[in-house]
Write a structure and sequence with these properties.
The chain is an alpha+beta fold. Helix content is 38%, strand content 13%. It has twelve helices and nine strands. The strands form two sheets. A six-stranded antiparallel beta sheet has the order 1-2-3-4-6-5, covered by helices on one side. The radius of gyration is 51 Å and the shape is elongated.
Length: 358
């Protein structure tokens, strides 16, 4: 390449930062006369790696999201292996955190934006694998970008891969399954974002130390999320940093929760019915409350009426219990049989006379 010019087009300027495999430069696109950022990977890959790099670069260039740094160009030929991206003027989140923790409301808003980016990228089949404060760019106008998407996959192409095939990411923010080497899925990005947001709100790195020490620490204890953090942020961070990948919410779900659009991660507890205030009762009042209430006084005119009513009730009871009187004996009827004809006439007349006298 021409001294300081990549591809005969990008004139390199000041170095903005670097890592183990690449450096980022401010550059001028001499063809379009605009400032860009160029990430230059160091040499040391074979043809297979270059083909993989080219494939991934095309995939990244096809992504479009307000929270992604657009990829304008790339090169995988000869000794030049680089990506050309939009230049974001501002600071990294790592630089901002050097001044101390951020307010919980600001952390929730930041988390909502980053989770939304992750949801978009996950939907396109990409896992970031290296979410950390230095990969979060905060522009001067307040916009937030998640940089280096797919770079961990690109790093696969330039040899940053162990013999077992496990990606070597940043140990401080790796998920437990990354440490164990049991598989890398979308949940590792959710876990890393949870640790980043936890660091933003507490002002401290949850798993500091050297690589192996930091990586193994999350296998012995879960992240400490202070009880003093307000809800629902506290519950969301605990869910995002769950040890088991299947227990973590998706990036899309995290974006909804952190924006306040969904609040059912933690069941709402109904408010208790307010109780009346407790009143101190003196001993004399307790005695009075325990004693039976006195019977109400009867009026003087009520006593005669009560007596008359009682007598009437007794008389009615006696009349009801008295046996009914026996019926008076009826007249003597003529015998059912007797002498027939005239011979019985005197007897019938005497019997009729006795009936009339009665």
């Amino acid at each position: 390449m021409v001294e300081g010019v990549l591809g005969g087009r990008y004139r390199l300027g000041a170095c903005l930062g670097g890592g183990g495999m690449a450096d980022v430069y401010r550059a001028m696109d001499t063809r379009l006369e605009r400032l860009v950022a160029v990430k230059v990977f160091r040499s040391g890959t074979d043809e297979t790696g270059r083909s993989r790099f080219e494939e991934e670069a095309r995939l990244l260039a096809g992504l479009s999201h307000p929270g992604l740094v657009p990829v304008f160009d790339y090169s995988a030929g000869g000794d030049e292996l680089y990506l050309v991206m939009q230049l974001v003027e501002g600071q990294t989140l790592a630089d901002i955190l050097e001044s101390g923790p951020l307010p919980p409301a600001q952390v929730a808003d930041l988390g909502h934006r980053l989770a939304d980016v992750l949801a978009y990228v996950h939907a396109n089949g990409i896992v970031h694998r290296d979410v950390k404060p230095s990969n979060v760019l905060v522009a001067r106008d307040g916009r937030v970008y998640l940089a280096d998407f797919g770079i961990s996959r690109l790093i696969d192409a330039v040899g940053r891969m162990t013999s077992s095939g496990a990606i070597m990411g940043t140990a401080t923010y790796m998920a437990p399954e990354q440490v164990r080497g049991t598989g890398v899925g979308h949940a590792v990005d959710v876990y890393a974002l949870g640790l980043v947001l936890l660091e933003c709100v507490t002002g401290r790195t949850e798993y500091p130390g050297a690589g192996p020490e930091s990586a193994l620490a999350r296998l012995t204890r879960s992240p400490f999320v202070p009880d003093s953090l307000p809800e629902p942020l506290r519950g969301i961070l605990r869910a995002m940093t769950a040890t088991a990948p299947h227990e973590r919410p998706s990036a899309e779900r995290c974006a909804d929760l952190l924006s306040g659009e969904a609040t059912d991660l933690i069941p709402a507890v109904p408010a208790e019915t307010p109780r009346p205030p407790t009143r101190q009762i003196a001993a004399e009042e307790l005695v009075r409350e325990a004693a039976p209430a006195p019977e109400p006084k009867r009026r003087r005119w009520q006593w005669p009426l009560a007596g008359v009513g009682a007598v009437a009730a007794v008389v009615a009871l006696l009349l009801f219990l008295q046996p009914p009187p026996e019926p008076a004996p009826g007249p003597t009827l003529p015998p059912a049989s007797g002498p027939p004809g005239v011979a019985r006439l005197p007897e019938d007349l005497a019997n009729l006379e006795s009936l009339v006298r009665q």
